[in-house]
């Protein structure tokens, strides 16, 4: 019977040389390149790099499995197959990210100069100009949105974790979930119609943009803070209660400091999430070529809208508008990256000290 | 500095479920009382009613009376926070606050209540409490290190120091040694012996040798089966419980026939 295979007595078995897979991979790619170039010559089309890699990887999969099955047995062969598939999936997932970052860095560095960070677009047609008005606008509106949504979100999370019982808490959780899913354009329309009630139709102001961003940000802050508060062990709360500390002081002095690192990270990620929003700001904050630092009057430019309008309304010197758009995109990515780094620093600073 | 605890006809509930039924006992000041019994019999639930920690769990409540020197803990207008300042508690697993240093852990009862304390008073309180918990000599050179940086047995003694720093009348200990090795257990048992001079101590333990070593009186709890409430079966001098108990179930339990 097939199931009563006698087990070998030794602990060693055939093994592929560590370099063998690489050699097989190289041969596969080279072979695939040959095949693809033959096809391209025959059909008169251009040589396809993607086709080469795809064919090469496929050939590698087949060859390594056959080779490994012959020498190492079926368990190792399965292992090599899965290793190759998982690595491949990772590389496929990485490709767009690397491509995106490299494209933005290459095209964005064209106009990533001092002028870009000191000039607005006022009275500029064609070359030159900068995005300082958009950077200031983005920072102002996102900052205001953060000031609005961090207290609301954090307090909601504290209510849900520490006090909320019964139907009210369930309703809040449900609506927070629903809010997480609203499209950003809807948040923009909400802010627009809200401010139109007070200031008449056609209202455009930075504060309305901040409100729209806050609507998008609050559910993210609630969710992440809630998670972080829930992981604080109940033992610590009980230890504090047992010392005769009232509940609110326990939350303030034990629960929040213990979860501060996670909360700070969650808030930073929520900010990073809304700082790139375009649609709501396009509606309620509008776009402008001039610097505006007044949150409560007139249009206010922001980086995503700057990128969008530069691309959408290209002027006479098309290349200048495109370069500015890419530089704006690069600036935005750098700001988000800086926020992430800041979140990590804060997390490290607040992390509970367990070192020996 | 220590008080008498009197429990009259206490029923303890988790929502609809009655966890402990009809307990009455008298705990004398300056004594060690041990609660023994099989798992799930309500020892820990009962000990948590003695400083109103039971009601921290949603849906949990209590019927009956717990008198501390004649004051009913469950009387109208009683603030559970003030109760807990008089009746301290040490938990099964050492739980020092991870964000605080050893020194701040001892001062937690003061600092978490946002009360101000002068540097010299704080130093004195830290030293007195740590000496009281037999920990001073081991940590006096590293008071600023994190509270989680010392060994499990030291952490548990730190938690005891933290409890006695708020100067309670009674100290409740819920299986304080079950997560510790024999040497640390011995250190805590010696400490209980010393604390007995000043405090009323109630200890839950699964270790019958420990109960016979440290306690003056022992209460045996038992449960008829899953879903039934736990009951106080017998409460007497430790010597009697372990040598000549009056109830058969107690004798079976302490002699290892079940449990």
TrEMBL record, chain A:
InterPro entries: MetI-like, MetI-like_sf, Phosphate_PstA, Phosphate_transprt_permease. It is a multi-pass membrane protein. The chain crosses the membrane at residues 21-41, 47-69, 81-108, 128-161, 173-199, 205-222, 325-347. GO terms for cellular component: plasma membrane. GO terms for biological process: phosphate ion transmembrane transport. It is found in: Cell membrane. GO terms for molecular function: phosphate transmembrane transporter activity. Residues 135-343 form the ABC transmembrane type-1 domain. Part of the binding-protein-dependent transport system for phosphate; probably responsible for the translocation of the substrate across the membrane. Belongs to the binding-protein-dependent transport system permease family. CysTW subfamily. NCBIfam families: 3a0107s02c (TIGR00974). PANTHER family: PHOSPHATE TRANSPORT SYSTEM PERMEASE PROTEIN PSTA. This is Phosphate transport system permease protein PstA. It comes from Microcella alkalica. The lineage of its organism: Bacteria, Bacillati, Actinomycetota, Actinomycetes, Micrococcales.
Automatic annotation (TrEMBL), chain B:
GO terms for biological process: phosphate ion transmembrane transport. Residues 5-248 form the ABC transporter domain. Keywords: ATP-binding, Nucleotide-binding, Translocase, Transport. GO terms for cellular component: membrane. It comes from the Bacteria. PROSITE patterns: ABC_TRANSPORTER_1 (PS00211), ABC_TRANSPORTER_2 (PS50893). InterPro entries: AAA+_ATPase, ABC_transporter-like_ATP-bd, ABC_transporter-like_CS, P-loop_NTPase, PstB-like. SUPFAM superfamilies: P-loop containing nucleoside triphosphate hydrolases. GO terms for molecular function: ATP binding; ATP hydrolysis activity; phosphate transmembrane transporter activity. NCBIfam families: 3a0107s01c2 (TIGR00972). PANTHER family: ABC TRANSPORTER I FAMILY MEMBER 17. This is Phosphate transport system ATP-binding protein. It comes from Microcella alkalica. The lineage of its organism: Bacteria, Bacillati, Actinomycetota, Actinomycetes, Micrococcales.
């Amino acid at each position: 019977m097939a199931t009563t295979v006698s087990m070998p007595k030794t602990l060693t078995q055939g093994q592929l040389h560590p370099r063998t897979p690489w050699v097989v991979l190289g041969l596969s790619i080279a072979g695939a390149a040959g095949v693809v170039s033959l096809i391209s010559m025959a059909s008169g089309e251009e040589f396809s790099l993607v086709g080469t890699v795809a064919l090469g990887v496929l050939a590698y999969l087949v060859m390594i499995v056959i080779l490994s099955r012959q020498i190492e047995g079926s368990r190792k062969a399965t292992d090599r197959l899965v290793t190759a598939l998982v690595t491949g999936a990772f590389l496929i997932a990485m490709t767009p990210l690397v491509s995106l970052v490299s494209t933005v860095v290459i095209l964005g560095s064209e106009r990533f100069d001092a002028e870009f960070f000191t000039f607005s677009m006022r009275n500029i047609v064609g070359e030159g100009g900068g995005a300082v008005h958009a950077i200031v606008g983005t920072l102002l509106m996102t900052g205001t949105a953060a000031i609005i949504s961090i207290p609301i979100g954090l307090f909601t999370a504290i209510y849900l974790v520490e006090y909320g019982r019964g139907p009210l808490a369930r309703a809040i959780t449900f609506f927070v979930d629903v809010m997480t899913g609203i499209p950003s354009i809807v948040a923009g329309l909400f802010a627009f119609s809200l401010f139109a009630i007070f200031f008449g139709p056609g209202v455009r102001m930075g504060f309305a943009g901040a409100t729209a961003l806050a609507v998008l940000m609050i559910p993210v802050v609630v969710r992440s803070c809630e998670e972080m508060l829930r992981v604080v062990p109940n033992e610590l709360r009980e230890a504090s209660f047992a010392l005769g500390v009232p509940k609110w002081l326990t939350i303030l002095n034990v629960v929040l400091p213990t979860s501060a690192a996670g909360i700070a990270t969650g808030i930073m990620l929520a900010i990073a999430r809304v700082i790139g929003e375009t649609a709501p700001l396009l509606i309620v904050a509008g776009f402008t070529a001039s610097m505006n630092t007044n949150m409560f009057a007139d249009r206010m430019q922001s980086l995503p809208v700057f990128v969008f309008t530069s691309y959408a309304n290209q002027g006479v010197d098309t290349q200048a508008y495109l370069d500015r758009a890419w530089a704006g995109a690069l600036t935005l990515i750098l700001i988000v990256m800086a926020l992430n780094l800041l979140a990590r620093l804060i997390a490290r600073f607040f992390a509970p000290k367990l070192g020996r | 500095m220590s008080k008498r605890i009197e429990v009259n006809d206490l029923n303890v509930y988790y929502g609809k479920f009655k966890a402990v039924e009809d307990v009455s006992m008298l705990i004398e000041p300056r004594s060690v009382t041990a609660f023994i019994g099989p798992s799930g019999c309500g020892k820990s639930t009962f000990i948590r009613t003695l400083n109103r920690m039971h009601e921290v769990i949603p849906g949990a409540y209590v019927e009956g009376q717990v008198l501390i020197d004649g004051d009913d803990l469950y009387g109208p207008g009683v603030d559970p926070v003030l109760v807990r300042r008089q009746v301290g508690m040490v938990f099964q697993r050492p739980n020092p606050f991870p964000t605080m240093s050893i020194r701040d852990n001892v001062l937690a009862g003061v600092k978490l209540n946002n009360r101000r304390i002068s540097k010299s008073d704080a130093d004195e309180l830290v030293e007195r409490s740590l000496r009281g918990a037999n920990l001073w000599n081991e940590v006096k050179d590293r008071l600023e290190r994190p509270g989680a940086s010392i060994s499990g047995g030291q952490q548990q003694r730190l938690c005891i120091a933290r409890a006695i720093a708020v100067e309670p009348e009674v100290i409740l200990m819920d299986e304080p040694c079950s997560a510790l090795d024999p040497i640390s257990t011995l250190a805590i048992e010696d400490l209980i012996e010393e604390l007995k001079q000043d405090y009323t101590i109630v200890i839950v333990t699964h270790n019958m040798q420990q109960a016979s070593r440290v306690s003056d009186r022992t209460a045996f709890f038992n449960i008829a089966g899953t879903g039934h409430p736990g009951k106080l079966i017998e409460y007497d001098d430790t010597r009697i419980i372990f040598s000549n108990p009056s109830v058969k179930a107690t004798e079976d339990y302490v002699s290892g026939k079940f449990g």
